[in-house]
Amino acid sequence: MVRILRKLDFQVDGDQVTVPSWRGDVQRMADLAEEVARFYGYNNIPTTLMRGQTTQGGYSPAQQLENQQLANAIENSDDPDMLESVARDKGYVKSGETLYIDVAN
After folding, report:
1. Which residues contact 52 (CB under 8 A, 6 or more apart)?
2. Which of 86, 51, 48 is nearest to 69 (CA)?
């Protein structure tokens, strides 16, 4: 890794790495790891399976209820603008995004 970083003009002194001034995109340890991986070649890194305990994702019962209530409200609403506001407040739609609702009358 040291050899790769030095070829990329990073200064390495023991555990300390100095990033070149023109490399504003390198700010964290993950950025250094990405540079080494990119230079070494992603295809040259062996694949491995995850270790440790994994969990299955999903929604809690409270989240499931809230999602179902919002879906019901959207389906039965006469005022899609009000529902867009609710969806934004709940974080279903981020600022600047457009909420598309199919209203069947």
Report:
1. none
2. 86
39 sits in which H/E element:
helix 29-40
pLDDT along the chain (105 residues), means of 10: 93 92 91 93 90 81 82 73 68 57 51
CA distances from 13 to 3, 5, 6, 17, 18 (A): 12, 11, 10, 6, 8
Q: What SS3 state is found at 104?
A: coil
Rounded alpha-carbon distances, angstroms, from residue 28 to 18, 33, 65: 11, 9, 39
Is residue 35 a contact partner of residue 5, using CB atoms and an 8 Å limit?
yes
pTM greater than 0.85 (yes/no): no
List all residues 6 or more positions away from 86 whose beta carbon is below 8 Å from its beta carbon. Answer: 70, 73
> First and final CA of the chain: distance in angstroms?
63
